[in-house]
Amino acid sequence: MDGHDLNAGSTLHLHEHNCPTLEEGAAPPIEAIIDALPVPIYYKDADGICQCCNRAFEELVREPKGEILGRSTCGIAPREVAYKHDNIDSELLANQGMHVSESSVIYPDGTTHDMVFHKATFTMEDGTLAGLVCFILDITEVKKTEVALKELQRQYKCLFDNVADPIYLQKVNGCFLDVNTLACSRMDYTRKELLKKDLQTITSPEHEGALAEKIEKLKLEGSLLFETEHITKDGVHIPTELSARMVVHNHKPLILAIARDITDRKRTQEALAAQKEFSSALLDSMHEGIIMVDKSKRLAYVNPAFYSITGFTYAELVGTEPPFPFWAEDDISRNMMILEEMCSGGHKPGEEIEVSYQRKDGEPFYGVITPTPVKTPDGMTGGWMAVVRDITEQKKAEEDVRRRLMKFRIEEGNVYLVKECTPIKSLEAFNEMLSAGYNGLLVTRNANSNLSKEVSGEFDTLWLSEKKGENTISPNLKRLEGVIDGLSGKWAVLIDRMDYLIFKNETKNTISFVQRIRDTAYLKRLTVLLCLDPSTLSERDIRLFEKETLELEPMLGSDLPEPLLGIIRYVYKQNALGTKPTYSDISMALNISKPTVRKRVQSLVSSNYLKRLVEGRCKFVELTEKARVLF
């Protein structure tokens, strides 16, 4: 303002102020009232001589009133301060009017205060100049508030301009009131240009209508998050996520909007959608069945090949929970166990698991599943997928060949009791299963060297013994049960000294053990052979074991002796492969002498089980129809 003068270097020293008191009942004169004011006041006559001051002014200049009155400022304040104020006072008395100036003042406690000096001339009744009056105000707190406000404004501006997204502050029905620096650079406008626009004018034409609806909704709800599209000065379209909120400033509603560029997100979404579409097309075109379950074990996806295999529709399968519609009632327990192991990571990636399912019409079918976890982008497991290969026809063919070639009628998932003093029949059945491709586990009291001549193929051996050692296991039923429970896949298990286990654990406990491994065998499709010496148990105890097991029965219904049946089985196997074995082939395969081969073949030819063919010096044999009936 005119006449406003700041002199931060000018300082005055001030004593603490004591308010004057009046005698009771006295009328306060004007001098007493002025003297009581806490604001320093003085006045000078037309010659610049101080004629009056209050107590607050005395304390400000640290002089008594008697030393102040009758003197100019030069006789009261320090030289540099007095010179300044005398000049101001002289000029003001000469020109008459008002004057305001600021100075810093040091208080008695050492603190610096900002003061404002208000001066004005006054006249007598006849209009002649009487002098000037001055009062002094402490504006220290006002100054501090101004500084704090400027700092807040600076911080606000700093934050506003350095936010990672464009920010727009707009009147509800008008242009932008404020925009940050990033908004200008993103939209390629100057600040002046952008402040002439609003959200509607920076939105692409395709989204203008939707934006108007969103703003109306924003007015009702107070806040809104939605996607739109902004267009820059150069016409570049920017997919944008707008986070808008209604705010109030100076009692007026405004729209505060933060705009986030979601171009990369949109590209990622489009890429994921394209990948999903491609993956879906790939899965839908596969000949193998595909099933997916989510983390809650709900069926989330099946491809056309799978519902073609099962006969169920997509709608009948997706969204169902276990037991699934394609689980046969008899196999629910086992399939549930497989699902639990799959979801808990119990199966190795790429591991093949044989399963038994049923079609919609109730017809059973066999499959091999290969489970694998489905990973989310952050590496977490979001579900599980399994490729299902229908092996029903293969299974039927294998079963047919196995039944024809094996001497004993053995089904997976069962426990068989073989009553014999010496493990002969049980070892023979165990041997056949190894030959059919089963993994083998032999639990025995006999040393492995004694069995090597009787069992062919590779198999694992556990020696039943109370002494610790390699490949040994104590006759503890729980431990043995744990070993069997840990098997998975096509396994044949032979325990050849059940009498030893009964002796160590008592009959009752051993029967309970058999009951438990029977359930395990059923669930895991294991085949378990129990060799029991009937002379070691009473008939009653034997019957208890028989109730929990099946009898091992021969496969062929023929009265032929076993040596001759062995030759018939071998010839059948070779004929099935498209070859006709010679006498030498039979001798080498069955480990019998050539004279014995000739004698037995002759017997079978005479009984019309084999047909002999001669080509040069070689003799071949093949089965007759009579022999084929046995299979």
What does this structure look like?
- The protein is of the alpha/beta class and 631 residues long.
- It has 5 domains: 5-140, PAS domain (Beta-Lactamase, 2-Layer Sandwich); 163-261, 2-Layer Sandwich (Beta-Lactamase); 270-388, PAS domain (Beta-Lactamase), CATH 3.30.450; 406-554, Rossmann fold; 562-629, Winged helix-like DNA-binding domain superfamily/Winged helix DNA-binding domain (Arc Repressor Mutant, subunit A), CATH 1.10.10.
- The strands form 6 sheets. Strands 21-20-19-22-23-18-24 form a 7-stranded parallel beta sheet, with helices on both faces. Strands 1-4-5-6-2-3 form a 6-stranded mixed beta sheet, with helices on both faces.
- Helix 16 packs parallel to helix 18 and helix 18 runs parallel beside helix 19 (539-548).
- It is elongated and about 165 Å long.
- The N and C termini lie far apart (122 Å).
- The model is unreliable at 1-20 (pLDDT under 50).
Question: How would the blueprint of this fold be written?
Answer:
Blueprint (H helix, E strand, L loop, with lengths): L4 E3 L22 H7 L4 E5 L4 E4 L1 H7 L3 H4 L10 H17 L2 E9 L5 E12 L5 E10 L1 H23 L4 E5 L4 E4 L1 H7 L3 H4 L10 H17 L1 E9 L5 E13 L2 E10 L1 H23 L3 E6 L4 E4 L1 H7 L3 H4 L14 H12 L9 E6 L5 E12 L5 E10 L1 H14 L2 E2 L5 E5 L5 H11 L3 E6 L3 H4 L8 E5 L7 E2 L3 H9 L5 E5 L2 H8 L1 H18 L2 E6 L6 H10 L1 E2 L1 E2 L7 H15 L6 H8 L3 H13 L3 E6 L2 E6 L1 H5 L2
Helix pairs in contact: 16-18, 17-18, 18-19, 21-22
